[in-house]
Amino acid sequence: MRRAALALLALGACQSADVEPRAASRLPSTYDALIAPLLAERCTGCHGAERAKGGLRLHTPEAIRAGGSTAPAFVSGDAEASELVRRLALPLADEEHMPPGDKPQLDPLERALLSGWIRAGAPFEGRVEALHASQSLERHPNPPAPIAPAPAASLAALRAALVHVQPIAQGSNGLWIDFAAIALKTDDALVRSLLEPLKGQVVELALARSHVGADTLALCAEFEHLERLDLRDTRLDDAGLAKLGAHAKLRELVLARSAITAASIPTLLALPKLERVFVWGCALSVDDLAQLRGRTDLLVDAGDKPDAVLAELEPPPKFTNELPSPDAPPPGDPTASINTTCPITGSPVNAKYTRTFEGRVIGFCCPNCPAEFDKDPAACAAKVISAVEAKPKTP
Amino acid sequence: MDPLSQHHLSLTRRRFFSRAASGLGAGLGALSLASILGGERARGASSELPVGPHFAPKAKRVIYMHMEGGPSHLDLYDYKPELRRRFNQDLPDSIRKGQRLTTMTSGQARFPIAPSVFRFSRCENHTGGVWLSELLPHTQQIANELCFLHSMETEAINHEPGITFFQTGAQVAGRPSFGSWLSYGLGSANANLPTFAVMISQGQGNMQALAARFWGSGFLPSEHQGCKLRSSGDPVLYLKDPPGVARLDRRRMLDLVGALDEIERRESLDDEIDARIAQAEMAYRMQMSVPELADFSDEDEATLEMYGPDVRKPGSFAANCLLARRLAERGVRFIQLYMRGWDQHGGLPAEIKLQTQAVDQGQAALIKDLRRRGLLDETLVLWGGEFGRTVYSQGTLTETNYGRDHHPRAFTVWAAGGGIRGGISYGKTDDYGYNIVENPLSVHDLHATLLHVLGFDHERLSYRHQGRDYRLTDTSGRVVRELLA
Fold first, then answer.
1. I need a labelling partner for B109 at 20 to 30 A (CA). Which of A57, A286, B161, B451 fits?
2. Domain extent listing, chain B
3. A-contacting residues of B 246-275, CB under 8 Å?
4. CATH 3.40.50 fits B46-243+292-483, yes or no
């Protein structure tokens, strides 16, 4: 949530200066990771290798640079002036709107992504980091990590022991392993025997409610891809946790209801990638928590999150029915007459012939009657007003 | 050829082609890992390897609190103070637009507007606050965790098709339930417990029947169907060994039956035999794991207190919320809670008070409890009924009493937890809470978004049956990215 909000803020602000040269990172470029897949999903069916509606193809950088038959697809650095962005922003019913109204549409985040990319200079190489900040925009959230396939026999051994093992995503060799089914029988020796051969594959490991301790943590320290470790409801203590050392990848650590104390603060602060730690039910004082929270890139959840703020309480409700119904005729135009029949002849009023008396408009049937009115305006107006008010209003 | 051999042959062909197709569709990486994992299957593990998520999931499991009957969005979540100044006015035609009504109110001479009698409070969230009814004091405390979807709509106007639609993505019974899809897609994370557990709490008012097909697996292998945990007596029926049968006897019997089943399976290649073996083995393991699961004696006092006094009554919504947490932490994939009794056609103010008293504290405690244990991050929580209720009164309207009919055009559900943006309100209804004016959300959109959070492309999580590929989202559905964390 935090990330998505940041990304949205950043979309407006990002400039070409944010673009890192591609060589600097092994990660795929913004164009490859985000832009090309989006265009492929929503546009290239009509603007691609096979078809070029409006003379425009969007399936390669060259084609995008070439633009369409009436306009270039984009103006580098200026999203608002870009034909592509303009078309996306048109009302759905507009026949120039893209993709055409009956086709699957882009959602606001996807539109923001294309605008943000053009604003950043529409780079085909390199990364506009702000656009990647929101993971939910990533079409390929798992750039092929250099994880080797797990040995078959070790996976089979896990399954035979009823330990849950599953790839973290299709096509990944990284593993999520959960000991939930046999937690109460799980100890250091079992964990070591099962996981020692999978050191290179474990990405998420859940050992909640088990009996593991220092030796398991020493083993975890060797899991080079480990990102999430769940040790909730274990008897793990400070000395045990310290065995983790300064693990380079660990992002999330669940220590709720474990036996760690303030002595583990240095261990936690030393984990370079740690983003989130759960320490509810541990022997940590308010001051200890404050010390942990001193590290601003670390979210410390100690079960002490304040309740939502109650900002307003409405007064006890009163019921009336004073609001006009939306089906009632619109309140009259102030230049319309209050009467519908002419006070002189009794014929219907013609809107062309009126007199105004004390702010009220009185209507007549022909050019002659206003002159009649002018002879005694007060008396004539009084007659009209009393006639109008006597008539019951339509409910 | 004799019919039996023909049947065997066709099964073999069907299996061959369907396996080959799913292998190819899943991509090479998955194929290799799947075949490694499949190389040696634990005895009694599921007959079919799970599809596995298409991309790294944000949530690993679901707790879905279904409010059977259709809670009134107008008295709980969708704050319309202006309606108080339209008390007893007729619902304007420009709002009703001649839409279909149930036969319970279509004969009414008038459709008088019934403003909620309850007071609302504004709770801070990331989208300028959300107004919640005084009926939900505990839920107010966690408003900053919840993602309120004020613009749900459904096609169904009656309970049975309405629940079926939310559970299976179709109004007509027979498709697999959401939980079954997840079981099929992700498999079990705890081989000792059902992958898809169902618990029912009785409510106060009008209650509709809850049919087992709501948690049925449709055309998916039957091991993916929901397993109902009962609230009194044994949580799972027929789990205990009958008197005189020792656990060892049971083991021997299972081994023998298993060996026979295995012979039959090799002969017929019928998937259902795999499912039967799996279920018998699981029942055997559940004999040990279920009693421990349902025993709250290891919960501390403060935790029990947080769930409220009802937590000590087995089968109450609060007790089932705590049980849901215990199932979640033991790796159960899909936990379906039903709360019956929201069908308040008459006497709504009094009845909804009892209903909300029964759910409010438990559901809020569940969110808090999951959160502090580090489980909320990876658990997707969903709360909602099969539709909302009408702004006009069914039956006589007074300043203190009214009823409301079914209303499918607009209503509120909320989600929280793994992968969902907490603390936001999404979508808007008109001044009458009758029509959606902003960001309509279909049931398919909701399903597509939830599947996305669980690591699935809803267009690719499919199962071939009777010659076509079926999905939870049928042929539509859109991932609503604004709702993603």
1. B161
2. 1-40, 46-243+292-483
3. none
4. no
